[in-house]
C-alpha cells in the first residue's frame, strides 16, 4: 500500500513513537523505508556553519560530521534496522521542511512520517519553533500523505483499525477521504466520518441562535452523507457524526471517544495564515493533542492504491 | 613552505579542489599554512603599478589626514572609537604602506592587511560621502582585497565562495539541473493554490528575465515560488534562464576579479540568448551591485550598462504598485511599528531610497513607519556587508558590528524590519539571535503576498466547500 | 638678494607652481581609467558634469555638505584657514602692487584692515587645526610629520607677511623672510600634499561623476553630499 516511506527523524527520544510507527508500517506493507535527518538550519550568511537542530549549537558540516550523524542514527535504531534490512539512511543540510519536501520529491515517496512536537515543546529550541514549522509546511506542500506521531502512547500496534476522518468539506478533504477509504477497506477496519461546525467563525448573532446552529448541523450531516458515505459502496462499517465547537478540540474529543488509532484530515484550507495564529493551525493542534497518529492528506497525487496492495 | 596545500595563490578551478578545501573544517589548516605563505613581492609591485592609477594614487596622496571620515564609519563608532578604525588609518596602514614600500611587505603585514580589509570595512562607501576630498575607502578596500587575494591572503570562506563561482557559476553548489528542477518543483507545489502558475525556463523575448541568489534555490526555494506568484498576479510575461540565473558574486567580496568577470558574463550571456525586454533581480543588495553596478565594467562594457535594462526588485514592486498591477488591500496594511533597512548597495550606491519609500506608502498604514537615523543614502551598513557575515574567523568582530543596527532598530521601537537584501536580512536575523531584541524581519515578497488583492480569475476554483 | 628674490626667483617659483599644478592635473586626468575605476567617465557628459559640479560646490560652500554641518567648528576653521591662504594673498594691496609693477595688470584690493583680520583668523585657524591633530585621537593616529610640515609651510608666509606689514622700523628682514617663505609655499604646492589646491577639484569631480553616472545619478535625487 505504501511502497516508499520517508521517515524524517532527529534520532532523539521524541521521535521514538514515530520511529515505531514508521518501522512497523514499513514491515507490515513491505515498504522501502528511508531514514532522513536534516541536521541544521543553514546559518550565518555565506558560511558553512549550520545550527544543529537538536542542540541549537553551531556546527561545521563536513563529510566527517555527516558520517558521524548517520552513524548515530544507525546506533539509535540498531534494533529496528536489524529487523528490517534495506533501510536507507540519508543526512541533509538545510531548512528542515524544505529538505524533507525535497527528499520526498526526489525519492517519490508515498508517505512521509514526521515526529510531532510533544506538548509544551511546541515552541522548540529555536525562535521560530522549527518542529511546528516543519510540520505545517510539510503538511501543506507535500504531495503525499503526511503521518505524524507525537504521543508516546500513540504507538502503532500491528495496523490501523479504527479510523477517524475529519473533514471541513474542502477540496483537499476529498483526497483525505480517498485515503481514509482505501486504508479502512484494506485493513477492514471501522471508519468514523466527522465534521465540526466551527462556532468561532460565525459572527452574526442570528447564526448563533439555537435554530441557526441546528440548521448548520443538519446541513453538515446531509453533506457527510451525500459527499462521503455514498462513496463507500458496500462498505458498511462506518459511522457519521457532526458536532459543534472549535474544530481541533472536537476532533480530538471525538477520536478519544471512538478510541481511534488513526485520524485522517486535510491541512485545513481555512488556516491560510498560520503565522498569525497564536496556537497554530487545526492540524497542528490535533497532532499535539491526539493520542494516535494523525495523517494529513491534501492532494490526490500519491494516494495508496487499494487494488494492488 | 611558501605555498600551502590549501592556502596558496592559486584560485580554485575544479570541483575536486573545492571539495578538498571545504574538507578543511573552518580553515584550520588553511590559516595555519597562511602563517608561512610567501609574498611574491615582484608580482605584487607589478600589479600595483599596472592597476593603481591616478584615482587611487591621488586618494592615498592627498588625504588631508583630517579625520573627518572617522565618525562616518559605523565600525569606528561601534568599536568604541578605536583610532585604528578610522577609515583613513585603515587604508593608509594597509594599501598606503604597500604602495609606499613598493610591494616590499612581509607575511605578517599581509595577514594584518587581510584582517583589516575583511573585518574592519564592509565596503559600504559611507565614508566617501563625508570626506572633503571624496576619498572612498570602500572602493579602495575593494581594490586592496584584490591585491590580497592575488597573493593568497583571503579568508577561507571567501576563497571557497570565489571557487564556487568558478566551478558552478553560482555561490553555492547548485547546478543547472538542480536549478531547473527547483523551478519545476516550485511551480508544481503552487499549482493547487495558483492554477496556471508557471515558472517558464528559457523563454525567449519575454518582458522580464528574473535572476536570483543561489541561496534561494538551495535553501529557500519558496522565495522563488513567491516571486513566481507575484509575477503571476501582476500578469507579467516572464522567464528565468536555465543558465546564468545566479546574480550574486562572492568573488566580489573575495576580490577575485577574474571570477567576477566569469560570473557576470554568464548572466549577460543569458540576456543575449533570451533577449528579454528587461531583467529583474531578486531582493539582494550585493547581487545587484555585482551584476548591475560593477558587472558591466568587469565585462568590459564601456557604457557601464548591462546588455538589457536591469532593475532591482524594489523597482519592479514600486512600479507594479504604482501602475496597479499589484493592488494592496488597505485593510491588510502593516499596522505595527515598522522600519526599513536601507541596503548600501542599491540605496547609497544606486539611488533607490525614494523608490523604497514609495513602496512603503502602499504597504504600511500611515503613522506606523518609523525611519532609522541616519537613513536613506546616509544609512549605516547592517553590520554584515562585504562578506563579513560569512567569515567564521571574524565572527566576534561581526557580532560587535551588529550593535550599530541593533541600536538603530531599538531606537525606532519597530517590531518589524523590512530588509529587501539577503545580506541585511541575514545580519538582522543574526542580531536577533545574538541579542534578542524581539523583532521580526522580512523580505518584501512575503509581506506583499499577505496584502495583495488576488484578482478573481486567479483564485482557485472551489477552494472551500464550507459555508461562509 | 632682494632683487633676485623678487626678480628671477619670483618668476621661477610662480612658473613652478603653475606649471607643476597643470602637470598634476594632466597626469590625474590621463591616469583615469574607466574600466579600472569602473566609471563610464565619458559616456554621460550631462550627468557627469552635473555630478562633478554638485560634488565640488557642496564642499566649496561653507556648511553646504553634510560633513561640514556635522563638524561646524572644524568647518569654520577650515574655511578661515583657506580664506587666509587663497583669498587674502590674491586681493592683498601689497601683492597687487607688485604684480601691477611687473605686469601692469591690476585688480581691486581688499582693505588692509580686513586683510589683517582675515590673516590673523587664518593663522589662528591653522593653529587650531594643528592642535586638534594632537588633541583628538582619531586625528593623531593618522598624523604624519608631513602634515605638520605643510601646515608650517602654509602658515609661514602669513605670519611673516603679517609681521612685515606691521612692524614699525626697518622691515627688510621680515619682508625678506616673507618672500622666501612665500616662494617656498609656491614651490611646495605641486610637489606636496598642497597639490590638493588643484587635485581637490579633480578628486571631487571624480567622485561626483562616479555617483552621478554610476551610483544613482541616473535615478532619484542622486547622491546628497
Ligand atoms: C612669493 C612672493 C610674495 C611676495 C613678493 C609677497 C610680498 C608681500 C609684501 C610686499 C607684503 C606687504 C608687506 C608690508 O606691507 O610690509 C606682503 C604681505 C602679506 N603677504 Fe605676501 N608675498 C608673497 C607671497 C605670499 C604668499 C604665498 C602668501 C600666502 C600664503 C602671502 C601672504 C601675505 C600676507 C597674509 C601678508 C600680510 C597681510 C596683512 O596682514 O596686511 N604672501 N606680501
Ligand atoms: C582653492 C584651493 C584649495 C582647496 C579647494 C582646498 C581644499 C582643502 C581641503 C578639502 C582640505 C582638507 C580639509 C581638511 O583639512 O579636512 C584642505 C586642507 C588643507 N589645505 Fe587646502 N585647499 C586649497 C588650497 C590650499 C592652499 C593654497 C594651501 C596652502 C598652501 C592649503 C593648505 C591646506 C592645509 C595646510 C590643509 C590641512 C589642514 C589640516 O591639517 O587638516 N590649501 N584643503
Ligand atoms: S576625511 Fe578624507 S581627507 Fe580626511 S582623513 Fe579621512 S580620508 Fe583623509
Ligand atoms: S566603507 Fe564603510 S566600513 Fe569601510 S571604512 Fe568606509 S564607512 Fe567604514
Ligand atoms: S548587507 Fe546590506 S547594509 Fe550591509 S553592506 Fe550589504 S547592502 Fe549594505
TrEMBL record, chain A:
<dbReference type="InterPro" id="IPR006016">
    <property type="entry name" value="UspA"/>
</dbReference>
<dbReference type="InterPro" id="IPR006015">
    <property type="entry name" value="Universal_stress_UspA"/>
</dbReference>
<feature type="domain" description="UspA">
    <location>
        <begin position="1"/>
        <end position="149"/>
    </location>
</feature>
<comment type="similarity">
    <text>Belongs to the universal stress protein A family.</text>
</comment>
<protein>
    <submittedName>
        <fullName>Universal stress protein</fullName>
    </submittedName>
</protein>
<dbReference type="InterPro" id="IPR014729">
    <property type="entry name" value="Rossmann-like_a/b/a_fold"/>
</dbReference>
<feature type="domain" description="UspA">
    <location>
        <begin position="160"/>
        <end position="297"/>
    </location>
</feature>
<dbReference type="Pfam" id="PF00582">
    <property type="entry name" value="Usp"/>
</dbReference>
From TrEMBL, chain B:
<keyword id="KW-0408">Iron</keyword>
<protein>
    <submittedName>
        <fullName>(Fe-S)-binding protein</fullName>
    </submittedName>
</protein>
<keyword id="KW-0004">4Fe-4S</keyword>
<dbReference type="InterPro" id="IPR054810">
    <property type="entry name" value="HmcF"/>
</dbReference>
<dbReference type="InterPro" id="IPR009051">
    <property type="entry name" value="Helical_ferredxn"/>
</dbReference>
<keyword id="KW-0479">Metal-binding</keyword>
<dbReference type="Pfam" id="PF02754">
    <property type="entry name" value="CCG"/>
</dbReference>
<keyword id="KW-0411">Iron-sulfur</keyword>
<dbReference type="GO" id="GO:0016491">
    <property type="term" value="F:oxidoreductase activity"/>
</dbReference>
<feature type="domain" description="4Fe-4S ferredoxin-type">
    <location>
        <begin position="112"/>
        <end position="140"/>
    </location>
</feature>
<dbReference type="InterPro" id="IPR004017">
    <property type="entry name" value="Cys_rich_dom"/>
</dbReference>
<dbReference type="GO" id="GO:0046872">
    <property type="term" value="F:metal ion binding"/>
</dbReference>
<dbReference type="InterPro" id="IPR017896">
    <property type="entry name" value="4Fe4S_Fe-S-bd"/>
</dbReference>
<keyword id="KW-0813">Transport</keyword>
<dbReference type="GO" id="GO:0051539">
    <property type="term" value="F:4 iron, 4 sulfur cluster binding"/>
</dbReference>
Automatic annotation (TrEMBL), chain C:
<keyword id="KW-0812">Transmembrane</keyword>
<keyword id="KW-0472">Membrane</keyword>
<feature type="transmembrane region" description="Helical">
    <location>
        <begin position="6"/>
        <end position="26"/>
    </location>
</feature>
<feature type="transmembrane region" description="Helical">
    <location>
        <begin position="173"/>
        <end position="191"/>
    </location>
</feature>
<feature type="transmembrane region" description="Helical">
    <location>
        <begin position="73"/>
        <end position="94"/>
    </location>
</feature>
<keyword id="KW-1133">Transmembrane helix</keyword>
<dbReference type="InterPro" id="IPR054903">
    <property type="entry name" value="sulf_resp_HmcE"/>
</dbReference>
<protein>
    <recommendedName>
        <fullName>Nitrate reductase</fullName>
    </recommendedName>
</protein>
<feature type="transmembrane region" description="Helical">
    <location>
        <begin position="148"/>
        <end position="167"/>
    </location>
</feature>
<feature type="transmembrane region" description="Helical">
    <location>
        <begin position="114"/>
        <end position="136"/>
    </location>
</feature>
<dbReference type="InterPro" id="IPR036197">
    <property type="entry name" value="NarG-like_sf"/>
</dbReference>
